[in-house]
Design brief:
Blueprint lengths: L25 E6 L2 E7 L16 E5 L12 E9 L9 E10 L1 E6 L2 E6 L13 E7 L8 E9 L5 E4 L4 E5 L7 E2 L2 E6 L17 E5 L13 E10 L9 E9 L1 E6 L2 E5 L18 E5 L8 E10 L5 E4 L3 E4 H16 L4 H11 L1
Antiparallel strand pairs: 1-11, 2-3, 2-4, 4-9, 5-8, 5-10, 5-11, 6-7, 6-9, 12-22, 13-14, 13-15, 15-20, 16-19, 16-21, 16-22, 17-18, 17-20
Helix pairs in contact: 1-2
């Protein structure tokens, strides 16, 4: 791997058997387990937070709805009121809903935040896809929030069937970012040409939340190439700092450009070609930012290639950090190693930064 693309790529989870390494450090904001209002049928008005649901049934989630409606297949809705005692100082929070059989569409206070699978007549199941949606903090209130989930089940189990996490969570690691780049990015699955040129018009591009798999945002089943863009401003007091671009985890491969200049890409990892490396989606991306590329107004552009299953920038944190934060990350790695954590890979990683 060349110095030019020296990347703190890192953190191979599968290499350590049962050890589970998370790029994110989650803090619970709202626990959504327990009672929900529920009804079978389908009406778009049920996404309206002012719609009265006093006559709906009460069910427990996560639990397949067959526990209450034996043999039922079709549409149904879940609703739940919640409050947020303390709103974090960040752009986004994460909503985890576990696994839903088969298709879902999620609304927070009447605003759609995401969808997994496709509803009839072009049905496509997402029963094996864990739900993770991003919600802008500005959409939430301390009291009087409503989450509404539209679900379609084709057969067998239905509904919010199981969950490791079921609720709203805040990524504590995201708060370490000196410049927070989570939230809305420009996104395209179509190559318009000169995709990394900052002067290339992106008005025709869609918008997508980052970090979050594109399958959860209307691109169910899409495998192939896609392009991300984000414009941001660097404060003058950071211009002379050594900075790093943190992109969390990406499925599967990427090339990263800043202001039209390539600053790295996982396809260069250890000289492997992109199709020889089947564990790249596990890697945590950190790219050094060359000082001569950075300006006051900047644009990151990323081409991602997804081979199968989930795709895109799917897990954070995402942002820009100073060298001091990188030292903090190294200290965390050393602590894990000293306590029997990540073994030789961590030692190699620490040397890479030292």
């Amino acid at each position: 791997m060349t110095t030019k693309y020296l990347i703190g790529y890192l953190f191979l989870m599968l290499a350590f058997g049962s050890l589970e390494l998370k790029a994110s450090d989650w803090k619970t904001l709202v626990d959504l387990r327990g009672n929900w209002s529920f009804t079978v049928g389908d009406d778009p008005a049920w996404a309206n937070p002012n719609y009265a649901v006093d006559d709906w049934d009460q069910v427990i989630a996560p639990r397949q709805w067959e526990h209450y409606y034996e043999g039922y297949n079709g549409f149904a809705w879940y609703r739940k009121n919640f409050g947020v005692a303390s709103l974090p100082q960040t752009e986004m929070v994460s909503l985890f809903l576990g696994y839903i059989d088969d298709v879902d569409e999620v609304f927070i206070n009447g605003r759609k935040v995401g969808q997994s699978g496709s509803f009839p007549p072009n049905f496509e199941t997402a029963y094996n896809q864990e739900r993770h949606y991003l919600v802008p903090v500005k959409w939430l209130k301390r009291e009087g929030n409503v989450i509404a989930i539209r679900v379609f089940d084709e057969g067998r189990e239905g509904g919010l069937i199981r969950a490791g996490k079921l609720g709203f969570y805040y990524d504590l690691d995201q708060s370490l970012m000196t410049v927070d780049l989570s939230g809305k990015w420009k996104f395209s699955t179509r190559d318009f040409g000169n995709m990394h040129n900052p002067q290339t018009d992106d008005e025709q591009w869609d918008e997508i939340f980052v970090p979050m798999a594109w399958e959860n945002q209307g691109y169910s089943g899409y495998d192939g190439h896609a392009w991300y863009r984000k414009r941001f401003i660097i404060p003058n007091d950071l211009r002379n700092e050594k900075l790093y671009l943190v992109l969390g985890r990406i499925d599967d491969f990427e090339e990263v450009y800043l202001n039209g200049k390539k600053i790295g890409g996982v396809e260069d990892l250890d000289g492997y070609s992109r199709f020889q490396r089947n564990d790249s989606y596990q890697l945590f991306r950190i790219y050094p930012i060359p000082a001569d590329v950075l300006r006051t107004k900047n644009m990151i552009s990323i081409e991602v290639e997804d081979i199968f299953a989930d795709g895109g920038i799917y897990e954070g944190p995402v942002g820009i950090v100073k060298e001091g934060i990188m030292n903090e990350l190294k200290d965390r790695m050393r602590w894990e190693e000293d306590n029997g954590g990540w073994k030789s890979f961590v030692r190699d990683l620490i040397r890479l930064f030292d």
